[in-house]
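As a warm-up, study this chain.
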Amino acid sequence: MIKIYRYRVYPTKQQQQSFQKIFGSCRFVYNWALTLKKADYEKQKAEKAEQIKSISIYDISKKLTALKAVPEYIWLNEVPAICLIWSLNHLDVAYKNFFRNIKKGQAGFPKFKNYNSRKTFSFHQGYEIGNNYVTIPKNGKLYTTFHRDFTGKKPYKKIFKNGKLIKVPNGDFNGSKTCTVIQESSGKYYISIVIHNKKVMPTAMQGNINKTIGIDVGVINSISLSNGYRLSMNIDFSKYEKRLLILQRKLSRKINKSSNFKKAKIKLAKVHEKIKLKRKYEVENIVCELIKYLKTQDYTNIALRNYDIKSMLDRDKVERDEHGKVLFGKRLIKTNLNRKLSSGAMGMLCEQIKYKLKQNRYNVFEFDANETKTTARCSDCKSEDVEIDLKSRKMTCNICNHVEDIDWNAAKNVCWFANENINSEHIRVS
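Now compare it with the structure written out below.
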């Protein structure tokens, strides 16, 4: 099983200068290779070739070797060659994703990188992972804070014997696959280590097929189960939002690309990073609480909806009049709803729930949210003739007069739909 571990690193000033060279060189090679691929495509198109074939990364890597011998680009030899090769691999992945998205009806052609693009470089050889350091090719030891252990981190383990600290070879060392050094917008450096721990994802539990529980993910109540249990996150970022407004106003008054502009930009990035880390912390905590609760229950099957967050955040869904103008107040309502959806991190929450459930051997039944109505449907008589009051968060059925909380009602419908269509093509079992 492949897992990714991310740690904070503290490079020296000399290493930071070297990292900036590597970031710039990788960005240059990526743009240079993208230019080659586009020029080769236009050339074949002009020659009216029967079948247009994109130039391979293998051919581009051979041209890169020749480019490094040119006196004008001799500075490319100052950085590790493996980092430049990985930059070409990232371009190859971007092209594959582009063609995959075309089949789905979504465009996503690779773009040229600029100075504001994310700064990263990767390598898979020429490094060593020690007790509190990672050796970077051509940069020496990089001090690393290993806040948690992983299988394969250290080729040895520390034990106390006769009052002395000694090192003993660790037989469980499997080695890491790839390392990536990342510089965030806040100026902090991290290293991401990909580990293959030689384990497999545990198989799902075998149990009663009718022992199913439904999960509804929302904004007010982050997680609602069909048995009435609820979990909520603290997603109040008002304190940070006020600070963001002040820093954004200060940044707008600075001269672009000046020293004060860069300092103000880093301050703004640090606040954004705090919001991101707090949101991630809340998501991981609530998912752990959910798993702990499910372990105390006798459920083996979990039903969950797949939400299309991108379409939910679409601003074109606001109500308009016959002339196409947005109705008064509707845009403000949509803006506030989008802010709550983004702060609630519904997409991240759903992915974490599915991952943790599979890791703990639960059968996960997923279905598209557009396949059936769960909120606007009575969980008692299954009628769609209902009225929803968002202020009181109650659902009232006009057929059977059933009144229930909308989140609990939706979770019940999720469980009902999974049980009714357990063998249908609408359900994906994982």
